[in-house]
Fold:
Amino acid sequence: MASLPEGLLDGGVWFRVEEAVTAAAVRRAAERLAADLGMPERRIAELSIVAAEAAGNLVKHADQGVVLIRPVRTPEQGGVEIVAIDSGPGIADVEHAIGDGHSTAGTLGIGLGAILRQAGRWDLHSVPGRGTVLAVQVWPEKTPEPSWASGLTRPLGGETVCGDAYAVRQAGDRRQVLVCDGLGHGGLAAAASNEAVRVFLKGPVTAPAATVEVLHRALGHTRGAALAVAEMDVEAGVVRYAGLGNIAGTVLLPDGTRRGMISMPGIAGHQRRQVREYDYPFPAGSVLLMHTDGVVDRWTAADYPGLLRRSPAVIAATVLRDAGTRRDDAGVLVARPS
Structure:
């Protein structure tokens, strides 16, 4: 079997899908990843249908279509997630488009029903004139409960590795997330962010400010990074946040308003002021959004009806599509525990 594309077993691989030959490459990459994860042949065959249809629809109907193929894991098993993103005409009537036999140049077409039948989990958001985001997961056995947080990273154009990263951890009722941006871009930036993720995931779950202090000490031998840690206390209705450097944190409230969160100046691993932790209201129905400086704030949830009710992966992909810049690494994380 051909070797896996670099990064496929880790953060995944992006494909720009404009021609049929690229759609075929997406299908083959998904099959190879599933085989390496030990998925049974029956599920690999079903995943192949999903990948072929998702990428093929971008070729036929979409503008600026891209696909992310990546692994998703629980302690018990590993699956494959496909995130298809486009800036095409969008879908005016999603429920009608899901039905087989419906295919026009303004929809994802006949393949959407086939995709959803094979998927263990799927989610979709589309706005006419803005495009569509589809996230599909195929698991070897029983589909696990949906994740309360997800993110996407995309390297600077021309780079093969991304200096932005994120991580998610939970200990009992404590749910924490990390977003980091290695200084600069390329391999050294990725090394700094990867080290932050490693230390975050292996270390004890402490308050965000204490965790940032640990990460600051751990990154001294690296180029350094901007980073932020947030902990959602659903019972108390607050999110606790501490950061160093240019990581943007925002609480998207159910009434459509947003509340920015404060990171202190500095570079984790090299220079910092006193790390401070702040509490922000986080009522039921709120969404936590964190991103690196490769994503700008020139978007508003009001332009995307229903988006904040979608899965974290679909929200993150939509923000990355419309607010991410190609002049820098870009990373987005979304957490929605309810």
In short: The chain has seven helices and 17 strands.
